[in-house]
Amino acid sequence: MAGPLDAAQAREWLATAVAEARAGLAEGGIPIGAALYGPEGALLGRGHNRRVQDGDPSLHAETAAFRAAGRQRSYRGTTMVTTLSPCWYCSGLVRQFGISRVVIGEARTFHGGHDWLAEHGVRIELVDDAECASMMRSFIEERPELWYEDIGRD
Asked: Would you call 62 a catalytic residue per the annotation?
């Protein structure tokens, strides 16, 4: 399991995911961004939720970052950084491929599968970033139909 992450490093990595979330929002999509970092801190891939833009229901932010990272021999020691607590689908991706740590911008607007991940040995770092929470709250107020579609609720 990955060790603790320095708070400054977590915020720096989160800034990459926040930039992705803003890009998704500017494109008319859902403002969730993610990035995958290697064991030594190199950025492997980044992306944002593109379900609306691409008409692809599987293209969540974590999936986009994972795909952008390309094939890796192993994902042990890697860190997935996401602006929002990962849903069950994305939590499954983290477990399936053995991603060691998840840095979460916020879990106020949505509490996904991060407790389950922690129970299964994934290190969870919850930043509780005000900007991430504000961006999601505003989006949910303005576009509740897209939000509920994204999380699989009617």
From this structure: yes
